[in-house]
Amino acid sequence: MLLSAGLALAISGCQTAVPVLVDLRGLTVADLRAAQMDADRHADRIASGCYQALLSELQIPDERPVGALSALQKARNAHRFIQSEAFAMACGPLAVDWIRK
User: Fold this and answer.
1) What does the alpha-carbon distance between residue 101 and residue 6 come to, in Å, rounded to a whole number?
2) Half-sphere exposure of 75 (CA within 13 A, CB side)
């Protein structure tokens, strides 16, 4: 399953928001599981928490859109997820950590 959406993370706590663009169209459950296992092996709690949040969303049973309205709803679901507080709390620290490097 692919999450067909673009992601813009705004870094909080800064005077101005710094947009970080990540393309989520290529994410798959297998890729996220592999990344999470690697992060866990290296005790990278920041990355592991983000990958777990993404896995939770991607593992929701998902059928292909039937038509325009169901495709629109799938895009809306993805957009709402990446705008959620739960996602920001899980993946915000990873974005901040990545920018600092």
Assistant:
1) 23
2) 7
Instruction: List CB contacts of 27: < 8 A, sequence separation 6 or more.
Output: 2, 3, 54, 58
> Please, what's the b/e burial string for 46-66 (b: 16 or more CB within 10 A of its CB; e: otherwise)?
bbbbbbebbeebbeeeeeeee
pLDDT value at residue 50: 93
Give the end-to-end CA distance of the chain in Å, rounded to a whole number: 31
H or E element, residue 8:
strand 6-10
- Helix segments in 4-101, DSSP class H: 29-41, 45-58, 68-82, 85-100
Residue-by-residue pLDDT tens, the chain, 101 positions = 333 333 333 333 333 343 444 555 567 888 889 999 999 999 999 999 999 998 888 776 667 778 899 888 888 888 898 899 999 999 999 989 888 87
Task: Give the DSSP letter of residue 60.
Answer: S
